[in-house]
Design a protein that fits this description.
By secondary structure, the chain is of the alpha+beta class. The chain is 36% helix and 23% strand. The strands form three sheets. A four-stranded mixed sheet has the order 3-7-6-5. A three-stranded antiparallel sheet has the order 2-4-8.
């Protein structure tokens, strides 16, 4: 089934307010456990590595197996500034070459070398990890973007591992309605027109 006018093919959906947007990450306890108190990610978090942020709770659930995968046992919900989120997207290149966006392979390769951020659109998932018709965004931060994320953008970090595992347990027990009631309220996030074009959203 094709997305309706109310559900574009590629759309950022998130929990957000006037100042912040919530994204999710998954880490082993060694990285995640100290982050809420520190208000950011500290050692052994490595700034040299690309780190991926995901506004979709269900895509994060799919990626980490409801916090059941090795190395992804903790799920921090990270509230970052909308200004920072927009900076990331404005300095992003799609992770794959798209002729309609980049023109030619050389232009995309050049942008990929210069941009510190990667964006990819992957099928959104339902409670049982089945792919849906519309896509959720993943944003990969590298280089300067990681520094800004850790030092400037993060407003608060909340460990939502227990919620993630509870939802997963309810789904495993066939209690999807109860699981659905625990999901965070995510709504369409309006991107500036230039970012819609740049990121092939819509």
């Amino acid at each position: 089934m094709e997305p309706t006018e109310q559900q574009p093919k590629r759309e950022v959906r998130a929990r957000y307010d006037d100042d912040t947007i919530r994204v999710y990450q998954a880490y082993p306890p060694s990285i995640a456990d100290g982050a809420p108190a520190a208000g950011t990610f500290v050692s052994p978090f490595k700034r040299e590595r690309m780190t991926w942020i995901k506004p979709s709770f269900l895509w994060m659930a799919y990626r980490c197996g409801y916090a059941g995968k090795s190395g992804q046992e903790r799920v921090p919900a990270v509230d970052i500034t909308r200004e920072g989120f927009h900076w990331a997207l404005a300095h992003a290149v799609l992770s794959r070459f798209v002729p309609a966006v980049h023109g030619d392979q050389k232009a995309w390769a050049s942008a990929a070398r210069e941009c510190p951020v990667r964006v990819q659109w992957d099928p959104e998932r339902d409670l049982r990890h089945r792919p849906l018709d519309h896509r959720a965004v993943q944003v990969g931060l590298g280089g300067e973007a990681v520094r800004r994320h850790v030092e400037e953008w993060i407003i608060a970090i909340t460990d939502v591992t227990d919620v993630m595992r509870t939802v997963g347990g309810l789904v495993a027990a066939g209690r999807d309605g109860e699981a659905n009631d625990l999901l965070p309220a995510e709504r369409p996030y309006q991107l500036p027109a230039d970012l819609v074009t740049r990121l092939r959203a819509g």
